[in-house]
Amino acid sequence: MRPLSVIPIYSYLLFHLLAPNTQPRLKLTTKKRLLAILVFIAGYITARFSLITQAVELAYFAWDNGVVGRATKGFLILSLFFFLFFIPIERIASRETSLVSTQSRRASSSVGAGAFTNHCAATMASGNENGLMRIFWPLDFPRRSEPGVLVGWRNSEHDVFVVDVLNGVDSRRIGRDLTSTNLYRKSPHSATRLFELCGQSALHVLGNVNEPAASAQKFGPSHIYAYTQKSSRYPRIHCPPSSGIAIQVILFERPHPHRMQYLSLRPISLALEDRAEDMEGEADETGERLRREELVQKLRLHSVKRPQPTEKERSLQMIVDQVNCSHEMRVLLKENISLLIGRRNRRALSVSERVVEGATGLWKGFLDALMRAVWVMWPLVTNCFVVLIVVWRLVAETILKVLEWRLRPELAALKDISATAQQFDIRLQQFCYWPIQYVTLRRRKKDWESVTSSHPDYIRFYNSLWLVANDVIIGIALGSYIIENAHIVAHQIDSHLHAYTVEGMKGMISWLMNLPGGLKLNQELGSFLGDLFLWVIDYWADTMTSIRPHLPRVIYAIGFSSFAGASMPIALFSDLLSILTLHIYSFYIASARIYNWQLSIIISLFHLFRGKKRNVLRNRIDSCDYDLDQLLIGTILFTLLIFLLPTVLVFYLTFASARMAIIMLKATLETLLACLNHFPLFALMLRVKDSKRLPGGIRFELKNTRAIVAAFDNSDTAPSISYIHLKSTPLPFRAMFHQYFQLGQRIRGHYVSPHVILCLMTGQSVPPIHRRNLYSMQYSMLPTKRAGPWELWGRLVEGK
Amino acid sequence: MRITILNSPQSITKMFTKPPKLRIRTPSSTTVEFTLSNAPPPTLPHTLLTHFTSLLRLILAATTLLLLLTKFQPPPYSSSIHPLIHPILATFSRFSTSLQWRHLLPASAVLLYVLLFIGGYTEESLVVIRDLGVQITTKTGWSTRSRFIPTERVSDMWICEGFRGFEVRFYLAVVVEGEEGLVVVFPTLLPGRRVLELVWRGARRCLHEPKHIGDGVER
């Protein structure tokens, strides 16, 4: 390939390696856009001046001069030094500090021991059997031992969710503020919406962190005491074993909503929902499904009555939502609390600060004026664009109508026959769907980023955009090659087609006409059939010679079409192949028909030979009294046909295998098309780059309680606490390619079934696989019913 | 009801490994983790041996890849390569040129598959957390598969018998509401009935909150 055509691909790939990074929102910030452009330029320069080659040469040069050896030696010496001195010193220092802190805490705890034992006696006496307390604790708090107030959701009495730790505020005052609405005055979107998402009406004060006299307090679920420390990531919850309550501390990392990370109980669905259901239905699968339903019914009968789910068990979905919202909730709280505290100590600006502000203000004013000029023009541009899109939509609608038009309802439409028409259909439908997807995604900006319902849409939208862009890039490279070498390509295609479908066929037929492989066939019938086919082939070859001079022009046209994407020349080539091998298809049909007739005659004559006949009305075989001459003639004909069968069979086998080869070739092309139209490229990239954006469920990891508690050193109590780490499971690769597996299974189920093999053996026409099953994958990213032009217009106008 | 468990590829290698051992971790009475593993106990020699074998596997796999690479593109016989590496490369190249593609390619494919994917230890675990749910994890070689089922959707847990190849095995299964089929716990190791009963009792005790004092579920 020419280097010039490589450059765009290469720089484009580099550009897109960063693209998911740079597009967390639809509208790029200027900084990120600048970064994307820089990467593009860097990619171009790298390709243009072959920087990679020069870097490799530099590496060789460095290797020759022993740079690597010296660097390795230096690294080894430094790391040895690090391991021998720095790590032991750090360990010793941290141990010393923890010793000091625990000693001070012990001293304070011994003071309140009396009150503590009193409380224990009280709880034991009342027989409090409350079992379990659940605390959800985010892992990103700063590791400090400063006192603070725990603020969060109280889902039920024994189920709390910590959102933030507020340092330097009074817990009583904050408790009063949290219930009033004026705490959330400064918020980008409606705060009640965020509360709604979390399923709670207000935040609460849950307890204290690092309260000095905490161990003196009695334990109660309404106000918990926790410690954090520099040496440990995990909190220590104050809970004496005598309180009779077991504690689960569920730790989680907050998903970052701006990076579109989120947790989900169900795996994210890459296909559209209504499509996913549509894929399931097939006639022979329904029987299996009924059988399974019956089994599931039996399974349900088998279970003894289970207890009703408790409130805590039912709240899992709400908790996942709270985890998803917790980042934005925390930011909102932080901003407003700092306003609340900062209100008091506001002072006037000094002179130097005013000068600086004035200088920056000048530049800002200039930028503002520029922006205002752009804003005046903006509505005009967008309106023009909307009109353009709707006009284009109308054009697409007419073309789609033509592609879908059927002469009669039972006949095939144009898109069912030709791969090119189908490719057109897919692309046009995608073009029709994009504006709607875009409008849906734009609506996301008006809401909190924690709303995760549109994230799959985002992935689908960018996946299809990226696939089309990729397709065009590959198409340009392919097209420029084909256009430049149109004559060579045409000659190659022509010579191969001639060699295989004309000369090869001719050779094969003439081989069959005289004793193929020493097999003694019927010479007369063989030469008759062979001559028949040879005449047709000769006629076809004549037609081909008249077409031949036009072939380079056709190839040229295919090359031009590839600027619309590499899938277009592939589809066109697939159609061209079916046209240029039309004669083989007709040979197959003819020979299959002859073979099938002969076989059915032989079967009925065999019944006659046995003195029986087939009763069509009852669909069975009855005895029958034949006359002597009937029997004689029938038997003679039976013998004759039996002897002639191998000759016909040989011809049938030849054409059937030729037809199979062509079908295989077309299937390969179809697979290529499917890969170009429906590869989960964006999803794969996200999986590699940030797997939290593709959640496939959640999982829990049990932490070692003893090790965590040992960091706080309260060895006198054996706490009944379990630390559980909540993590997000990334979507497995198998789930991404689920549809490919399903398609493969379906094709295998159809073509390797006994029925199809029997059809092939007896020369009956093989029933084709239903198109809806074969191409459902390519359409799985598109809705079943596309929105009309007027609906689109309405949405676009409303979207503004 | 007859329920067949599919034969897993691990069953062939299972003959050569030790019977799996059960480990139970209960940080509190509301959380329990049952881990079933056929790895030896994590003593120092065993750990060293494991690391050594995995290193050896990696080296062998890299060697196979290098062999393929030198066959595909023989290294240049010039002094631009470091004098320490050059003789090694030359040996590789000599060896690979003496082999033919049709022998080398399948052999190296099989070797790579065996080195990277076969063997290793299997560890399967069941975590039961009260009020949250049940989690089933299978760890084999490189891959970790886990499935979490919320308590709300667990309708039952039971021990059952199933056909597996030419044997009948006991297995512990979770019945999930609104889903066809069962979710088998410890699907590759399939421990014996004694272990399963132990796990079943522990899991049942932990999963649901005791409603009344002394209804048999209490410890």
Automatic annotation (TrEMBL), chain A:
One CC-aspect GO term: membrane
GTP-binding keyword on record: no
Keyword Phosphoprotein assigned: no
InterPro entries cross-referenced by the UniProt entry: PigQ/GPI1
Any one biological process term the GO annotation gives: GPI anchor biosynthetic process
Signal peptide region: none
Transmembrane annotation, as ranges: 6-22, 34-51, 71-89, 373-395, 464-483, 554-573, 585-609, 630-655
Keywords: Membrane, Transmembrane, Transmembrane helix
Coiled-coil intervals: none
Protein name per its UniProtKB record: Gpi1-domain-containing protein
UniProtKB/TrEMBL annotation, chain B:
GO biological process: GPI anchor biosynthetic process
Domain Phosphatidylinositol N-acetylglucosaminyltransferase subunit H conserved: 125-187
Pathway: Glycolipid biosynthesis; glycosylphosphatidylinositol-anchor biosynthesis
GO cellular component: glycosylphosphatidylinositol-N-acetylglucosaminyltransferase (GPI-GnT) complex
Pfam families to which the protein is assigned, alphabetical: PIG-H
InterPro entries reported in the protein's UniProt record: PIG-H, PIGH-H_dom
Protein family (similarity comment): Belongs to the PIGH family.
Protein name, as recorded: Phosphatidylinositol N-acetylglucosaminyltransferase subunit H conserved domain-containing protein
Species whose genome carries this gene: Morchella conica CCBAS932
